[in-house]
């Protein structure tokens, strides 16, 4: 379930608002998305996967334990290596290598651009 929108990281791009299939977010007065319908979250991870600055955290757990308060604290999530870890495992994000490129095709040539190759 969606647990955190980090106002410090968020760039107000609205990608999370756009990709959420259950309309969990509203745009805040400052442009930062607000979790308005927390219970509607389906834990699909679309918002977290599409956030270009790793400002979101979706907990895969349905109960607040063991994360509890940690799931709502950006500093604790960052220190614990969780904020941005889902996108990293996907291989998404600036400077990250594809996580499973062999599963989707041959390895890239050294120095090849993954977008144009």
Automatic annotation (TrEMBL):
<keyword id="KW-0408">Iron</keyword>
<keyword id="KW-0813">Transport</keyword>
<feature type="region of interest" description="Disordered">
    <location>
        <begin position="96"/>
        <end position="117"/>
    </location>
</feature>
<keyword id="KW-0677">Repeat</keyword>
<feature type="domain" description="4Fe-4S ferredoxin-type">
    <location>
        <begin position="1"/>
        <end position="30"/>
    </location>
</feature>
<keyword id="KW-0411">Iron-sulfur</keyword>
<dbReference type="InterPro" id="IPR017896">
    <property type="entry name" value="4Fe4S_Fe-S-bd"/>
</dbReference>
<keyword id="KW-0004">4Fe-4S</keyword>
<keyword id="KW-0479">Metal-binding</keyword>
<protein>
    <submittedName>
        <fullName>4Fe-4S dicluster domain-containing protein</fullName>
    </submittedName>
</protein>
<dbReference type="InterPro" id="IPR050572">
    <property type="entry name" value="Fe-S_Ferredoxin"/>
</dbReference>
<dbReference type="Pfam" id="PF13187">
    <property type="entry name" value="Fer4_9"/>
</dbReference>
<keyword id="KW-0249">Electron transport</keyword>
<feature type="domain" description="4Fe-4S ferredoxin-type">
    <location>
        <begin position="31"/>
        <end position="61"/>
    </location>
</feature>
<dbReference type="InterPro" id="IPR017900">
    <property type="entry name" value="4Fe4S_Fe_S_CS"/>
</dbReference>
């Amino acid at each position: 379930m969606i647990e955190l929108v980090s106002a410090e990281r968020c760039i107000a791009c609205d990608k999370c608002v756009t990709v959420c299939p259950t309309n969990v977010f509203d745009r805040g007065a400052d442009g930062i998305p607000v979790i308005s319908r927390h219970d509607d979250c389906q834990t699909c991870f679309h918002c977290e996967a599409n956030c270009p600055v790793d400002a979101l955290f979706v907990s895969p757990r349905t109960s607040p334990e063991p994360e509890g308060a940690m799931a709502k604290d950006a500093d604790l999530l960052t220190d614990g290596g969780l904020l941005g870890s889902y996108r990293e495992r996907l291989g998404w994000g600036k400077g990250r290598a594809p996580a499973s490129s062999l599963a989707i095709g041959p390895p890239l040539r050294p120095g090849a651009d993954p977008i144009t190759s």
